[in-house]
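hey so u asked for the seq, here:
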Amino acid sequence: PGAICSLQRQLEIQGSQLRRTAAEKEMLQKQLREREKQLQAMSSKFCSLREERKHEEMLVAMEEENCSLQQLVTEQEHQLAEQKQLLSELQGRVSQLQAEVLANQRHLQKQKQAQEVLQSQAETLQHRELQARVALAQVTSRFDRFRSRILQATFSTADSKAPQAELSDEDVLEAMQ
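ran it, structure tokens below
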């Protein structure tokens, strides 16, 4: 965003310079036309005069000034063309940066959506894990009660004796058979 603002500011400055240069060019062309009119008027006057030498000197001076103004107009036109080119390049760069910003925003939005999906999945898995632990605790409790009942039933007969040590599940199974 800072680069875009900077480029837009440069674009405005270049546009202002472009307009100023165009105005200067128009003013110089107007001056050139006025000088050409003056030159023609002076030329008409001098033709009627007999002083050929003064007439030629004035014509030479006017021609030199005319050439100087034409050269200045040519330079201004060249600067104007360069500034138009620079303005076009800056506009292209601004468009490119705007497209990049838009693409980055879309990418961030997709990442955010993916993160939300993953967060939702993680919460679902945590909930399922909790349910599985609760179910496991219930099954374990039921299994322990069942085992205890089997032990009571197996060793509650009159001729059986209590076990000397802790019995494994296999020992209990053997005794039942």
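Residues 7-147 form one domain. The two ends are 82 Å apart (CA to CA).
lmk if thats what u needed
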